[in-house]
Amino acid sequence: MSKASSAVITMLSYARRPFSCLTQNVFVLRNTVGTHRSHCLKNQWLQRPFSTGKSGSSKTYMWKRYGKLLGVGFGVGAFAGAYYAYEFYKKISTPVANPSEGGEYILKESPPEYAPARTIHVPTDTTGLKITLFQYQTCPFCCKVRAYLDFYGFNYDVIEVNSVTRSQTKWTDYRKVPFLVIKFPDSETILQLKDSTMIISVLQSYLHNKNENIQSLVKCYPTINYTDEEGEKRIEIMNKYFLMYGQHPSGRTKEDIVEERKWRKWVDDVLVHVLSPNVYRTPSEAFQAFQWFSKVGNWEQLFATWERLLVVYVGAAAMYIIGKNLKRRHQLHDDVRESFYEEVNVWLKALKKKGTRFMGGDVPNLSDLSVYGVLTAVEGCDAFQDVKKNTKISQWFESMTEVVKQHGGATLVSERGSSA
Ligand SMILES: N[C@@H](CCC(=O)N[C@@H](CS)C(=O)NCC(=O)O)C(=O)O
């Protein structure tokens, strides 16, 4: 779903390119004509004063005529230069704007009420937090957050965002999913946590660090707003891979914490990028993937038929094309399956070296949950069936499915609930 809307957006931005090329050609054409004209003008300019330059009145005439032109030219040039400098200055002076103090995560008012696509209730969650996840069912980042919430057994509501109308996120400036809205039993504050990795880091810090509440923990993740070289506004969340333990967590070595961080980053920077080119490898695979998204996302229930068909057909066609670009951008093998197998094997090799059931030992840690979460996004696609056939992922993957379903980490949440 997510991919469909990004698809349409990306298609539009691609569609703009030929136009901009066209405009450039017209511009070049005009310029050529212009250059030719000004060249003639220059010749006249050069010729007139000097060839007829003997007469003073002719000189005055020339200055009157061309001096004005020169003045206007300088004026326009100075104005254009100043404007350009101003725009440039704006670009380089906006990179860092730091609201900090966690203010960027506080909502001034409660978002509108939407009917949840489903409500997850786990009796062991006694934290009293009211968590709402805004998501696309098959977005890998959303799947990662769900894997985390389900493993720990948090209670939460799911709001399925319509990627065509995005009507459920009109009230926020944040343009992506997933994000969480959290309400607290003992405070009026309402928080909006943005970015899958930051969400997981904040909640995990909250579970481990009983001296801090979520409102104060978010202050450790200040955002930096900047404008990139293409003029796009971007947000960088500082420390998003770091957990705010307060003190060194018992039973964990420093190396083990660093490793966990490394894998979480690998998931965001590497693993996630092999998914799209693989699930949209051929037109029929792209179509099959979208049909599966429609099924697990319950689109038939949630969206109008025309919306669903639009997303499935247009989305599949667009993503097939975009998949090819992503393949180039992320320098995947010609046969993108090879890249998928390779990355999965990188993970499996590390797991084998560790010698335990999960990367976290007997219980999954955040690396396990992140790898597992993004893989569940493509679980029903041909690509993942191929991965299961051609690598040894199944054993670990099935163990993860089981432990997430059983809320294997629920004790931590209930302990946190009783200490609140
Ligand atoms: N770094 C973000 C990435 C989130 C992201 O890129 N989400 C995509 C969906 S998979 C999105 O919302 N794109 C904009 C859109 O579809 O409108 C995170 O980890 O949460």
Features:
single chain; 420 residues; alpha+beta; Glutathione S-transferase Yfyf (Class Pi), Chain A, domain 2; 5-stranded mixed beta sheet; two-stranded antiparallel sheet; 59% helix; globular; binds glutathione
Topology summary:
Layout: H1 2-51, H2 56-93, E1 118-120, E2 130-135, H3 140-152, E3 156-160, E4 179-184, E5 187-194, H4 196-208, H5 214-217, E6 223-227, E7 233-237, H6 254-279, H7 283-296, H8 299-302, H9 305-329, H10 336-354, H11 366-376, H12 382-390, H13 393-405, H14 410-419
Parallel strand pairs: 2-3
Antiparallel strand pairs: 1-3, 2-4, 4-5, 6-7
Helix pairs in contact: 1-9, 3-4, 3-11, 6-9, 6-10, 6-11, 7-9, 10-12
Bound molecules: glutathione.
Structure description:
- There is one protein chain.
- This protein is an alpha+beta fold.
- The chain is 59% helix and 9% strand.
- It folds into three domains: 16-51; 53-93; 103-419, Glutathione S-transferase Yfyf (Class Pi), Chain A, domain 2, CATH 1.20.1050.10.
- The chain contains 14 helices and seven strands.
- The protein has a five-stranded mixed β-sheet with strand order 1-3-2-4-5, with helices on one face. Strands 6-7 form a two-stranded antiparallel ribbon.
- The chain is globular.
- Residues 1-56 and 93-97 have low confidence and may be disordered.
- The chain binds glutathione.
- Glutathione is lined by residues 2, 5-6, 136, 139, 141, 163, 175-178, 195-197.
- Glutathione (GSH) binds at residues 2, 5-6, 136, 139, 141, 163, 175-178, 195-197.
